Amino acid sequence: MSMIQVRNLTFSYEGSPEPVFENVSFCIDTDWKLGFTGRNGRGKTTFLKLLMKEYEYSGSIQTDAVFDYFPFSPENEEQDTILVAGEVCPDYDYWRLVKELSRLKVEEEVLFRPFNTLSQGERTKILLALLFLKEEHFLLIDEPTNHLDQEGREVMAEYLSRKRGFILVSHDRAFLDRAVDHMLVINKNSIQVQKGNFSSWYSNKQKQDAFEEGENEKRRKEIRRLSAAAERTERWANQAESLKLGKKGAAVFGIDRPNRDYLGEKSRKMQQRRKNLEKRREAAVQEKKELLHDVESAEEIKLFPGVWRQERLIWMREGRIAYGERTILSNVNLEIRRGERLVLQGSNGCGKSSILKAILQIAGAGGTESAGSGAESCGAFGHLRYEGEMYLGAGMEISYVSQDTSGLSGSLSDYAVREGVEESLLKSLLRKLDFSREQLSRPMETFSQGQKKKVLLAASLCRQAHLYLWDEPLNYIDVFSRMQIEALIARFQPTMVLIEHDRAFTEKVGSRFIQVRDFFASADERVSLGKRR
After folding, report:
1. Angle at 377 between CA 381 and CA 470, to 5 degrees
2. Are 171 and 476 in contact (CB under 8 A)?
3. Distance between CA atoms of 256 and 268, rounded to whole angstroms?
4. Across the strands, what pairs with 168?
5. Which homologous superfamily is 312-316+338-368+393-532 in?
6. pLDDT beyond 60 at 533
């Protein structure tokens, strides 16, 4: 066991007016399974890079630990995976690697395939297994779930729960609950270390926030009361002082006017009482300042979806989706009704995204009341081909969020023009999703992955669409923004088709679930349209 002691850590990127960290101090144990979370752009990945000594900083990070960072890319991805394993962990034992992979539900045969032919999920599992074979190394694992389906996340969480000695950056609540025993959280104005998983931390945070909200209200009322009392006392003191001399005192008291010493003492006591009230008010103000520093503001987001004129928006019957001559899905029978939030489920590569792309291709061609067999488009998604019946009403407005953020560059103003959305509305939504005003003027190349994904989501929400197609919209998105989006969907209930592997999110927003693998079944065996709720 060793410790990682951070003392007075200060770091800022060159040219940035605000530091990422300023005089931060905390201590963590390298035996912990440490979950690491916080709002997008607050420095989670930056802190991992500081541990890896990739940036210069002031303050100190003291530890005997040796760090390894995930994700990373092997030098030669074209060679067989077994050779990549030798590069990553030169002294590994083959039997131990096979044992680790079996725990991750990865077949031994993948070791003898070229690494670049593996799925992203397989690569994630293999590289993490190799890193855990390095004894006495402390792993820095940065969002490993982005290429894992729901089943893969459950397998990975179970695997990590049996390990020790890592920092895990993730925003998946269910994943964190199963995988970690401590939490490291970057709050608005502090860094917090706490024993337990995400749910226990969040429960404690809610209690602390509620307590501080209550105390803040008490202090606010106390400040108001003390301010009013101080003003009254000041008026009385000034009145007493004015009666010491002159005609005013004679007019009030007549020949029985008290002597000046008595009136002076009365004035002095009043002034002292006023000063005491001012001191108490200032103390209350100071106590109030210490509250609510780390309360996360999650403003309500609004959405005004269009209402389609008919109950049914889309249906597919006996559909086949292919790229060129390669069939991706067959026996596709799908129906989307007004107000539904349909969640497409299944393993990576099973064709979920292809369904969304087929809908978009048909819609891009102007829609059709009854698309027959052989509809093909060679647009943004390549030679995608849909065969079978499809209904998609002409003129339907569809809003799409892609998995890919690589095309985001330039200013938000230029992006709003390209996407045909109102700039002020786009920026207003991003402000509510925790963008600072200064961030809005930066080029998008400087945004974190989570901030880029928020740009795509905000642009989608700007559109008054009849149907929202979101393909893994929550990759890299922080927990608090996920909760905002959950509340948005629950309130406005837009018609949606979602592909998302965050179980906590889909359980709250989904109204119907379909396993895409069912589309490979025969027509006689198939369960018609999925599970409604």
Report:
1. 45
2. yes
3. 21
4. 35, 141
5. P-loop containing nucleotide triphosphate hydrolases (3.40.50.300)
6. no
Q: Which CATH number is 3-188 given?
A: 3.40.50.300
Lookup result for tokens 């949606």 = 496
**Whole-angstrom distance, CA of residue 176 vs CA of residue 202:** 12
pLDDT tens digit sequence for 117-172? 988 889 999 999 999 999 889 999 999 998 888 899 999 999 999 999 999 999 99
The CA distance from 359 to 320, in Å, is 12
401: nearest Cα among 341, 461, 483: 461
Highest mean pLDDT among 47-51, 287-291, 304-308, 376-380: 47-51
Q: DSSP label at 243?
A: T
Tokens coding 322: 């292919």
Q: Grade residue 511 by pLDDT with cuts at 50, 70 and 90.
A: very high
pTM score? 0.76
| pLDDT score, position 42 | 85
Residues 6+ apart with CB under 8 A from 202: 173, 479
Place of tokens 């099973």: 350
Q: Which two tokens stand for residue 304?
A: 């005004």
* 370 CB-near residues (< 8 Å, 6+ apart): 389, 390, 391
Whether 401 and 457 have beta carbons less than 8 Å apart is answered as yes
Long-range contacts of 208-212 (CB under 8 A, 24+ apart): 209/292, 209/294, 209/295, 212/291, 212/292, 212/295
Domain ranges of the chain: 3-188, 206-289, 312-316+338-368+393-532
Left if phi > 0, otherwise alpha if psi is -120 to 50, otherwise beta: which for 366? left
Measured CA to CA in angstroms, residue 252 lies from 233, 234, 240, 257, 264 at distances of: 20, 19, 11, 8, 16
C-alpha distance from residue 78 to each of 85, 94, 109, 118, 448 (Å): 13, 21, 16, 10, 29
The reply to whether domains 3-188 and 312-316+338-368+393-532 share a CATH topology is yes
For 319, the token pair is 């559909």
Give Cα separations from 1 to 34, 63, 67, 164, 197 (angstroms): 14, 11, 14, 11, 21
